[in-house]
Fold this protein.
Amino acid sequence: MDTEMNVRTMPRIGDKAPDFEAVTTTGRLKFSDYAKDKWLILFSHPADFTPVCTTELTGFAERKKDFDALNTRLIGLSIDSVHAHLGWVDNVHKNSGVYFDFPIIADIDMKVAKLYGMLQPNESETAAVRAVFFIDPSRTIRLIMYYPLNVGRNMDEILRSLEALQTADKHKVALPLNWKKGEKVIVPPPKTLDEMEARRNDKSVELVDFYLAKRSLN
Ligand code: BEZ
């Protein structure tokens, strides 16, 4: 397998998210229409009717209202048929009462998985890895997570990352290690000597040094 080629064609942070049309559990959709004016989480799982994937999609379904509150749509993907998806959605609903209330792409020809670098041949040549693409309303890829087949993702971290991206955009700030909503944010470092001096005298910021300053958002 040409891994060099795979690396070159994998979307990266800052790239425009490639558009596609696909068959999903809610019908055929065009990605750019589905994503219109919304943040989007595009995530892949290796296979339907498998244990880790069942816990993960249950996690997405259970937190869907949190994604809705962040103006964010979910769309899943695996290299399975739509019939397998429907059977799995129904099976999980019967077993646990949880309903996967978002489209899941049936990427049986691997077209979308290849477009997004979700097929990583040294991990598996037939199943997508556990990818998460955070895509903003201008359809720019803002953050990417890749997990291997045998490690489930962390839903709190996915939501925290989404909230961090949106907060960074809204307030033109950066977020420190382990930042959570309500905590202090990092003010961009000064670009001139005058700005540096002003920063030293700014009582609204917690100044560690001229290049590391934090402030509350309220
Ligand atoms: C799982 O979801 O449990 C799983 C799927 C594919 C490979 C390994 C684990």
